[in-house]
Design a protein that fits this description.
three-stranded parallel β-sheet; D-Maltodextrin-Binding Protein, domain 2; globular; 2 domains
Length: about 350
């Protein structure tokens, strides 16, 4: 699967504007790897998908930025939407910096919902950094009866969605409950199926749209004004979508804004790299500083272009703050989120 990225040059320039805390390696970090060790990179999905492609990009480039230049070996561990890999990294993998991984961007939100099978505390992972965020969208075909999200509060529109507790379902459910939209979910569609259904007129729109995928697979949707983007998910408006509101912009009070921020956090986490909890300080520092250096490496940037990958990095420290926000919600808001999502009240 090729991950085509929305206007790589524009995104690369945007990413370059992000200032990391660079600094020099501490003496301890500079001796973190001796050159004889290898690092296993656990990928929580099968080969060929988006997480796998980002993981293999990191496997090729990160080792060159670490002291001792250890070899990084990608290992796929699919299962339960990457929960198998997340549980392994948290509980079983060595906690010495020789095991890292990439898993679902939604693991913190899954934990918030009390999803069964979770054997970790997302905030306690050693977060290394983010390769790229994800920009999810709800959009409608140009023949739909609405042009804006405000009009969707007065007219019903049918929206293709996926399975229970998927982002495509939750975005619609939460918007309807908290903002008064009349988005009618039509369940059972995968991402590509929902796109075709929208084109064929089976539904008015889809909540499984990704800005990067539109650029890669359906650029004419934009150039020929075939699709109207109603709302975007995230905590900051994408540079190319400044006129499209965020879901959080639709909140009418602070509690609802926090709830909508919580469901948006997964897209902010995006394609990220983590390690088990409790890593030695020098190993975590080496991994984070090496990760940051990777995005200043012209070879890595060129490889990302060839692989058609979006790069919008975020430091491990900032990523840790984003993940920790879920733990800062009041019990009342957590209960509200679980109720709106249709998740079980217990087990989390």
């Amino acid at each position: 699967m090729k991950i085509n990225v929305h206007a790589f040059a524009a995104r690369a320039a945007f990413a370059a504007a992000i200032v990391f805390a660079l600094g020099r390696f501490s003496e301890a970090a500079a001796q973190a790897y001796d050159g004889k060790e290898r690092i296993n990179l656990i990928i929580g999905y099968e080969q060929g998908g988006g997480y796998d492609v980002y993981g293999r990009f990191v496997a090729q480039m990160l080792g060159r930025q670490l002291p001792g230049e250890p070899r990084i070996v990608p290992q796929n561990m699919p299962g339960a939407g990457s929960l198998k890999a997340a549980n392994y990294i948290y509980n079983i993998a060595p906690k010495d910096g020789t095991a890292i991984g990439t898993v679902s961007q939604s693991i913190a939100f899954m934990q918030l919902l009390g999803q069964k099978g979770i054997q970790f505390d997302a905030a306690k992972f050693s977060w290394i950094g983010r390769m790229s965020d994800v920009v999810s969208l709800i959009g409608v075909w140009h023949t739909a009866p609405v042009k804006t999200i405000e009009e969707a509060k007065t007219k019903e529109v049918t929206i293709a969605v996926g399975g229970a507790l998927s982002g495509s379902v939750l975005y619609v459910s939460f918007l309807n409950a908290l903002t008064g939209t009349k988005l009618k979910p039509i369940a059972g569609y995968t991402g590509n199926q929902s796109h075709l259904a929208m084109e064929r007129g089976e539904v008015d729109g889809s909540s499984s749209l990704l800005w990067s995928a539109i650029h890669a697979q359906y650029p004419y949707w934009i150039t020929e004004n075939k699709v109207r983007i109603l709302v975007q998910v995230g905590l900051e408006r994408h540079p190319e979508l400044q006129d499209v509101p965020l879901v959080t912009d639709l909140a009418t009070n602070e509690d609802d804004r926090k709830v909508l921020s919580a469901i948006s956090s997964s897209d902010v986490i995006g394609r990220s790299l983590l390690a088990p909890p409790g890593l030695p300080r020098e190993r975590l520092e080496a991994l984070r500083r090496g990760f940051e250096a990777m995005f200043r490496n012209p070879e890595a940037i060129e490889l990302a272009k060839r692989m058609k990958l979006d790069l919008n990095p975020l430091s491990g420290e900032k990523l840790t703050e984003v993940v920790a926000q879920s733990n800062q919600l009041s019990p009342e808001l957590v209960a509200k989120i679980r109720k709106l999502a249709g998740a079980e009240e217990s087990g989390g």
